[in-house]
Sequence to fold (70 residues):
Amino acid sequence: GIMKKNNWISIKDQLPKEWVSVIGYMTDSGDFPSVRECYSVDGKFFFPALNEFHPISHWMKKKEKPHIKT
Fold:
């Protein structure tokens, strides 16, 4: 299987499915937060909060929402 550390998956090992929201680690974020929601689109990574494409090195699945009793 794929070795995972802290649930991060290297893009060298596996890419996320296209148009599925994941958490990506941007490699060009500079002083800005490097961990953000993104989508894989044609081998590139789109960050909706930034409305831009950025390279990533790693990604992880988003966590499930907590079940809240009402």
